[in-house]
Amino acid sequence: MEESKQHVNEDIFSKVVRAGRRTYFFDVRSTKAGDYYLTISESKKFTNDDGTFYFKKHKIYLYKEDFENFSNTLNEMTKYIIDEKGEEVISEIHDKDFKSKNDQNEDVENQSDNNDEDKKSSEVELEDI
Q1: Bigger pLDDT: 19 vs 2
Q2: Which of 29, 34, 53, 60 is the most exposed place for a label (fewest CB within 10 A)?
Q3: What's the pLDDT score for residue 42?
C-alpha cells in the first residue's frame, strides 16, 4: 500500500492585532505546491448570560493573484471613510453619551409631542372663564 502524504498548513509568518473584543490574526501559510497565501481571521469574544464566554470566528483566504486588487480596494475604502468621517471613533462603545440618529429623532419627536401637550394644557377656553 502507498502512504498518502498529508499537507499541513503551518503558519510561516504571523501577526496579531488586538482591538477591544476583536482580535485579528494575519497568517502566511503554504499551499500544497509550496506557494504562499494569506489568511485573515477575526475572532470576537461574546459573553453568555451566565458569565461564560465564547468566540465567533471568520476567516478570509487571500491568494497572491488577488493581493493588488484587495490592497487597492482596502486602501480606497479606508481613505474614503477617513476623508468622510475623520479618524475620530463615533460609537456607543467608545462614547457613553453617544446617541444614534434614531435616538435623536425620537427625542425631537418626544419634545415636540410634549410641547403640543403643554400648549393644549395652557390654552384657556372662553367657556372655562
Answers
A1: 19
A2: 34
A3: 96
